[in-house]
Amino acid sequence: MNQLPIIERAIAHGDRIAVRSATGTHTFQSLVAKSERVAALLLGQDRDLDEKRIAYLVPAGEQYIAVQWGIWRAGGIAIPLSQSATEQEMIYTLTDSQVVAVVVAKECADKMAFCEDHGIRLHQADDLPVSSRIELPEIDLNRRAMILYTSGTTNKPKGVVTTHACIQAQIESLIEAWCWESGDRIPLFLPLHHIHGIINVLSCALWSGGQIEAYPRFEMDVILGRVAEDAYTVFMAVPTIYVKMIQALEGMERESRERIVAGFARMRLMISGSAALPATIHQRWTELTGQRLLERYGMTEIGMGLSNPYEGERRPGAVGKPLPGVKIRLLAESGESNPGDGIAGEIQVCGETVFQEYWNRPEATENAFVDGWFRTGDIAVVEEGYFRIMGRSSVDIIKSGGYKLSALEIEATLLDHPAIDQVAVVGINDETWGEIVAAAVVLKAGEAIDLDSLRAWSKDRVSAYKVPRQLIVVDELARNAMGKVTKPAVKQLFEASQESK
């Protein structure tokens, strides 16, 4: 039987250790066997799921991999769910993608108790058939494989659909660019409903025969201890984590710091992504560890598109050059393609690594492309051959702690607050988080609100990283002639309040 390439490679890696986690060590061979049992569970009496959508809520580790592979091997489309999502956010994802079943780990089962009310089957990831002796379907690489939900400039997240061929192209591009090898070892603590964790860490490591050490979250003390023990050869994180590690290292006793720093120094590759890395943090990390972080650029719709080189200059503040197999152009406002050094344009991407469509949104899909090029909405310039990101073409995207947040989505939630008449959400620069969510509100007559009460109200309605961290009650100065709050004026208000501190 023909297997998906990722399964073929896992079979070839045999009894090598693929994953270390709190449950022990797990080989590639055991992951393949367990994924077959997951596929058998999902198929039941069917021969092929025929691209039915299967969501899953499973912590990082061997069980996550087996479930993901099992969905694919049964012919389903995998939809990973966020561990931090609220019930309302999960219901939106499941109903929008028309999920027929959810696979859930035992420790997460309480979060998915609502599935029965929505007619969605719930499977326990721990309750698999003893035998998997069934015939699995052959999966064409052009079939849909995964849907990741991303916040764009609409008020609801869109499902980004990738095929098996697209995922393979994304993996192979990074394997080549970052010189992945079978001896690599990497910690996995990034969220596994985002492309950074799923493709850059998990899939690249497994494809190459490397080893993952899985954590449910970033556990600073444990991970730094493992760094001191030379547990890892590759390390990937978002800028926020590098900021926190710098703070931790600077606060340590000299002997402890030196052991950890030596462990970082011996790694072959350290990468930062998902948000802009401040040049000061880039420089400080090099001063502490001797490592020059490799910064790259990507998004859910394209995988990774640009990267500083593995060999050569890693330029602070720049995201490098196009990755293997990725075609990129800048389109200037004048309509000129690749206008030359120093002239800004929108990054547009085409090639096998680009997603297929937005799920059930043909109009949004059509609007996202021009002449076959995907319009990222990110503005950049080329300087001596290196791309530098200048910002979003939309003010409605906030990048905070590695997450891409929709300001419009947060605004729609905050407008449900009984005291709020108008709201404008913006991102405010923050060295630790990149940007933080800030809300400016106009109150209804006779109402009052403060930040603590707004945060308490918000935390049950949106994920923690979408809860406002700053609040301003807007007066007439921030409204336009129509009496509406304008985001440029709101930005100025927050910036002025920061400068006055």
Structure in a nutshell:
The protein is α/β, with parallel strands linked by helices and 501 residues long. The protein is 31% helix and 27% strand.
Write the topology of this structure:
Blueprint (H helix, E strand, L loop, with lengths): L4 H9 L3 E5 L2 E4 H16 L9 E5 L4 H12 L3 E4 L6 H10 L4 E4 L16 E4 L19 E7 L7 E6 H14 L7 E4 L6 H14 L2 E4 L5 H9 L5 E4 L1 H12 L3 H12 L3 E4 L6 H11 L4 E6 L3 E5 L13 E2 L4 E5 L13 E6 L6 E2 L3 H6 L1 E2 L2 E11 L2 E7 L4 E4 L2 E4 H8 L5 E11 L3 E10 L7 H8 L11 E4 L13 H13 L2
Parallel strand pairs: 1-10, 3-4, 3-5, 5-6, 9-10, 11-12, 12-13, 25-26
Antiparallel strand pairs: 1-2, 7-8, 8-18, 13-14, 14-15, 16-17, 17-20, 19-20, 20-21, 22-23, 24-25
Helix pairs in contact: 1-2, 2-3, 5-6, 7-9, 8-10
Query: What's the N-to-C terminus distance?
Result: 66 Å
For the largest beta-sheet, the strand count, sense and barrel status come to:
5 strands, mixed
CATH class of the largest domain: Alpha Beta
Q: How much is the radius of gyration in Å?
A: 23 Å
Tell me the number of structural domains: 3
CATH homologous superfamily classification of the largest domain: ANL, N-terminal domain
Which secondary-structure class do the elements indicate? alpha/beta
User: How many strand elements?
Assistant: 26
Mean of residue pLDDT? 91
Helix content: 25-40%
Ranges where pLDDT stays below 50 over 5 or more residues in a row are 476-483
Under CATH, the topology of the largest domain is which? Answer: Rossmann fold
| Form type | globular
Give the percentage of residues in beta strands.
25-35%
Strand order of the largest sheet: 11-12-13-14-15
